[in-house]
Amino acid sequence: MSTQPLSAVVLESRFAQELGELSVPWRADDVADPRLLVLNEPLAAELGLDPEWLQSAEGVRLLIGNLVPQGAVPVAQAYSGHQFGWYAPSLGDGRALLLGELVDAGGRRRDLHLKGIGRTPFARGADGLAAVGPMLREYVLSEAMHALGVPTTRSLAVVATGRQVRRESLLPGAVLARVASSHLRVGTFQYARATGDIDLLRRLADHAVARHHPGAAGAEHPHLALFEAVVAAQASLVARWMLLGFVHGVMNTDNTTVSGETIDYGPCAFLDAFDPAAVYSSVDRGGRYAFRNQPVAAQWNLARLAEAMLPLLHEDQDRAVSLAEEALEAFPRQYSAAWSAGMRAKLGLPQDLDDDVASSLVDDLLVLLQQDRVDWTAFFRALGGTARTGAHAARDLLLDRRGFDTWAERWRAVGPDPEAMDRVNPVYIPRNHLVEEALSAAVEGDLDPLGRLLEAVTAPYDERPGLERCAAGPPEDFGPYTTYCGT
User: Fold this and answer.
1) CA 381 vs CA 147, 260, 372, 375, 384: distances in Å
2) Within a domain: 391
3) Would you please indicate which residues are annotated as catalytic (active-site) residues?
4) pTM, full prediction
């Protein structure tokens, strides 16, 4: 029996205290009969929270914001954003609260953030609520991304509210408790710049340096060093997405973090068939954030960050623009280096292999995979077996088997390392059809499919008996696949 009292939960409010102009104190809607659906017990322990206590009535009330530790100041955060290229000056947490900040077992400061708590001053006419399905989607996707080694927000819990949420139909409501190293976004800087208060902009930048990029504090020009660090973090992040076949779907500036963590798992998906033009978002009608466009979109978002930060880069605007452009020009190089290193690892190529040889192998393989719309995840995992024993599982995924044989002869000649390949090529990802199946069952009250899927995707590189279905591609009648924002 847990004995952790609420008084043992220490939630600090440094963001609210240091940057009060960027938030509004607020409280979550009262929920009469909350019910815990899923709890991330390892993450809870990492945060210094007793998992058993979080499952109690008092703990569940904390997870929905109805019970707040003494001294904590829950706030809805303000930010702007370019949404599909169009600037919205006042967005903010329309249905979310920053409950406070925890210092975890490793000494890292992390936000505890609640999504679906009801309308806030930033709701803009929306109901401020969230449904069970989308909140469980974020839980599954974010925890899978964490297990895959991708920087991301984490999911602590999903709690059913017992309240109906009206979307296309009436859906059961829920609150998601998520954890991040912070919720500072490009849009946060855009909002601060739009106020015209340069002191506020400077304090925000200093807060970001202290929170995420402390090495910048010792640089000759700390704010320029901050911008350079964010550019590098985003280049690395998007390369990881691309290597795993992940399509974010809503790469707006309010979903681009200063920390370099993935945030917002709304209309997102993993590739089944390899298609550079893949779009899964119902709202991305022009394909702005298609799979192949993600690096370009990230650099565009970083240019908006540069614009917001110009007054901090130099008092002379022309010089500030020059410094920003020079820093931004590093993005394509950094992204290309991360992508190339990742593809070499996926193919198990020796470290000393000539770059031109490696690039040729990668480029020629991508042509084969695209023309035959090959299952991205299954192919690379099976390719390890080809390197190990000559197994045909990877070859059998292609129609152009003669083309594959020609390519594979060149590839095997360089001596690929199958063990190294298995460390970076997952067996299990959140397969789109399995995610939908698990969410549909959960909405009807059956959490078993969700549990099986989580078992697979939270240990994605370890092949295990009984999980064969979680490794298989979609049935032929699945698709075309579309995902939605959930608002």
Assistant:
1) 16, 27, 17, 10, 6
2) no
3) 254
4) 0.96
